[in-house]
Write a structure and sequence with these properties.
Elements lengths: L8 H22 L2 H8 L16 H8 L1 H32 L7 H8 L1 H4 L2 H13 L7 H24 L4 H9 L4 H30 L2 H6 L7 H11 L4 H25 L7
Amino acid sequence: MWLPFYATPSERLLRILVVGFAVAVMLFLIAPLFIIVPLSFSKDPFFTLPVHEYSLRWSTDLFGNSRWMNAIFNSTVTAVLTTILATTLGTLAALGISRPNFPARRVIMALLISPMIVPLVIVAVGCYLFFGQFGLTNTRLGLVLAHTALATPFVVITVTAMLSTYDNNLTRAALSLGAPPLSTFFRVTLPNILPGVASGAIFAFAISFDEVVVALFMTGAEQRTLPVQMFSGIRDQINPTIMAAATLLLGVSIILFIAMTLLTQRRPKPST
């Protein structure tokens, strides 16, 4: 909001400085994008700036290479399965924690969000040692379970925030009219908290699709995801195809951000 016309020169100068600083920070954060995207459409076999000639050579190599396509497939399948599992578990946990008479609510909430606080490397080592006892390392199931542990806290937080604005009298009214609990949830509760559930699902998908540290510990050659394939490509042989893959990840992130923005705008206002 702009300052009124009667603002003093010092106030106007201060606002200009604040806006300029904010723009500078924003440009600093998104500056790498101005390098990745052009390089992904460069025809040169090396990373060279400025780009001399544009081409779809590396995008064609990305979608025409069996290793990259297998990595994209693994990332997509893992992210979808993680989203389904994390959204289900996170929604159920949020419904339980949001009950007014739920015992040890703060302790349970702290345990649920602990994967967000603990360093990711420690989580990866813990998952590797724990799931290794059940033979789930180097399997898609083990990776999905590990990613579910990382994604569920985000679902819990978003759904809990939505439940804080939910009128529990709607649930009580449905139950008093004879509706079964399961029917009450799907016909009354879920439609009202759906933006929060969907937001949590988007978070879960994004976390699983972009995650690399846990995937390095939990996957083998057959389960290698796209971020792991990119990491291996950088470590073994730098290839501009990596930039095409990075542009793909960027596009997915932008789509998820737009979806999140639309869902946020549809959130119901707290009842008074």
